[in-house]
Amino acid sequence: MRARTRAVAAATGAALVVVPLTGAAAAALVTDESGVSGTTLDASAYTAYSNDVADIPEVTTAAKKASYTIETPTVKVKVPPPPEPEPVVVEETTTESYTSTESTDSGATEVSAVQAPATPSADVQAAISGSAVIAEASKYVGVPYVSGGSTPSGFDCSGFVSYVFGQLGISLPRTSGSYYSVGTQVSTPQPGDIIVTPGHVAIYAGPNLQIDAATPGTTIQFRGIWQTGATYVRVT
Questions:
Q1: Domain span including residue 11
Q2: Together in a domain, 49 and 103
Q3: Is 78 domain-assigned?
Q4: Is pLDDT at 82 greater than 60 in this prediction?
Q5: In this structure, is residue 222 part of a structural domain?
Q6: Do 122 and 191 sit in the same domain of this protein?
Q7: Are 50 and 111 within one domain?
């Protein structure tokens, strides 16, 4: 291109200044060495100039455009973990152990394990509605155990049983050992019968259920039958 440009300049006898323009046309301003302006290219020189301009390569080629890459930064988003589920509270029924220490007529002491109070159930309601003895005994649920106690301010085991039956007009012994010889012993107890074991008496309230004054630190409650080798006595 430079050679051809020089040729055009030589043909006109002047220095050539090229100013490329956009569009189909191009303009050229030609001045001679004396600095006089206004000289115009003839047709052949203009054609050569136009060809030279057409030969100018693109600054940015299609290949270069295709090779361009844009780096996109990787954005890391930290997603918080889901909240932990609320803890599930499960109520458990536990069995506590107590010790029954009821004194007998001879002064001896019997020691037995006592179950925790039973949860109120349909069996309790049935016993209360079906037995006057259980209905009376249930009035004293919550009364504390008091050694030697025989009033609603505090009971021991025989004091409680004798007081309940006394409210129904039945007189019973004050010591637990004497209950073996009252009433009639039965093999199939019913609510209201008396449960007699060495050193302890209670009132039967249904299958595996009784109400009694168990031991110091406890109260009158419906609870499971914890005694073994029991004798059942019916006095009504």
A1: 2-60
A2: no
A3: no
A4: yes
A5: yes
A6: yes
A7: no
Which pLDDT band holds residue 211 (cuts at 50, 70, 90)?
A: very high
Amino acid at residue number 2: R
* Domain termination site, one of 35, 60, 85: 60
One domain for residues 109 and 188: yes
Instruction: Name the residue with higher pLDDT: 85 or 10.
Output: 85
108 and 52 belong to one structural domain:
no
In whole numbers, what is the pLDDT of the chain averaged over residues? Answer: 74
In a domain, 162, yes or no: yes
Ranges 70-74, 209-213, 214-218: which has the least confidence: 70-74
Instruction: Identify the active-site residue in 52, 156, 193, 200.
Output: 200
Domain count across the chain: 2
pTM: 0.54
174 vs 219: CA distance, rounded Å:
19
CA nearest 51: which of 12, 110, 3? Answer: 3
| Catalytic choice (52, 156, 193, 212) | 212
Average pLDDT for 18-28 = 45
212 is an active site residue: yes
Query: Is the residue at 74 inside a domain?
Result: no
Higher-confidence residue of 41 and 234: namely 234
42 part of the active site? no
Q: Answer yes or no: 200 catalytic.
A: yes
